[in-house]
């Protein structure tokens, strides 16, 4: 399929989630897709996770923030058509902790309960360190922005998690946390359970110290009555991800190791009944002429060698792309993006990539 259908795909969705392993160009691709949609006239929110410093600077994202701020799309050359867009691009750099805090506030019965949780030392530790927290909060932010209805399109760059499962499982993270045996033991203390948990807590105290255990117990106790709210919300996030409004875009580079990771991610999506709508193959060898007749003069030798090596590399890339696509169960739009001469760190670089990605 062509890049024209990538344009159509993005135009038909209100949520786009980009997945892929770190370093393949996921954050850059998210920004370019967002820019493209905004220039097409839509109001777009981009949730970024870890933009390269210079890209963040170019987007005016100099710090973590929980609310989107508007990015000026006016090109330096005001005479172009692009200056006339009615679209808007809003972006934020995910602040995991504040997003988590907001969630606690939302589901607490009263401000006192929220305070008990937020001021708990154990909470401060887990809200950043618990595996899957960043993934969960990215989904949480997505849900919040999609629910608000302020935007035509919400684009979410996902964290560079090594483990695709963590990302897909993340909507259930809090629900799982509250399914914890310790939580249950504390909330519904049948005699047997209470005895067992007291014994275990004593053992635990010896290892990590009584204060820590007290914090943990207080933490779980502070959650009383909140689990249903969390579970319900997790379910709604999953429903949103599975709905027609949402598309998953897999970003990969055409190397053996990254396509293996991408195929694994595609399988995880499939296992969760989620389709890969598009595969963006990024940083490919630029397409350049294949010599039919080889000049014989010896001074051409180094060029011929470079020519042969680059074409061999391009052929190998095609093998990796084919192998990846054969492992993606859905019939995704395939987008080929060449490696640009320089990093993408400003609106001009993004525009160049946009032209390649959407063939505008
Ligand atoms: N097609 C491309 N051509 C040249 N540089 C690219 C391209 N795509 C991404 N980059 C660069 O690669 C680096 C990593 O990209 P990034 O989007 O941060 O990756 P990820 O989010 O997957 O970790 C950045 O410096 C970015 O500018
Ligand atoms: Mg990134």
Protein architecture, described:
The protein has 360 residues and is of the alpha/beta class. It contains 16 helices and 8 strands. The protein has helices spanning 3-11, 26-39, 53-58, 96-107, 111-118, 121-129, 133-148, 164-169, 173-178, 181-187, 191-208, 210-222, 227-242, 256-271, 301-326, 347-358, and strands at residues 15-19, 43-48, 69-71, 88-93, 153-157, 246-253, 276-284, 333-338. Strands 3-4-2-5-1-6-7-8 form an 8-stranded mixed sheet, sandwiched between helices. Helix 2 crosses helix 16, helix 4 packs across helix 7 (133-148) and helix 14 runs parallel beside helix 15 (301-326). The chain is elongated, with a radius of gyration of 24 Å. The two termini are 16 Å apart.
Number of helices: 16
The percentage helix is 40-55%
Low-confidence stretches: none
Bound molecules: adenosine-5'-diphosphate, magnesium ion
N- to C-terminal separation?
A: 16 Å
Mean pLDDT: 82
- Can you name the CATH architecture? 3-Layer(aba) Sandwich
Entry summary:
The chain has about 350 residues and is α/β, with parallel strands linked by helices. Helix content is about 55%, strand content about 15%. The chain binds adenosine-5'-diphosphate and magnesium ion (MG).
Summarize the SSE layout with pairings:
Elements: H1 3-11, E1 15-19, H2 26-39, E2 43-48, H3 53-58, E3 69-71, E4 88-93, H4 96-107, H5 111-118, H6 121-129, H7 133-148, E5 153-157, H8 164-169, H9 173-178, H10 181-187, H11 191-208, H12 210-222, H13 227-242, E6 246-253, H14 256-271, E7 276-284, H15 301-326, E8 333-338, H16 347-358
Parallel strand pairs: 1-5, 1-6, 2-4, 2-5, 6-7, 7-8
Antiparallel strand pairs: 3-4
Helix pairs in contact: 2-16, 4-5, 4-7, 7-13, 11-12, 14-15
The structure holds adenosine-5'-diphosphate and magnesium ion.
The site of adenosine-5'-diphosphate (ADP) has 19 residues, from helix 2 and strand 7.
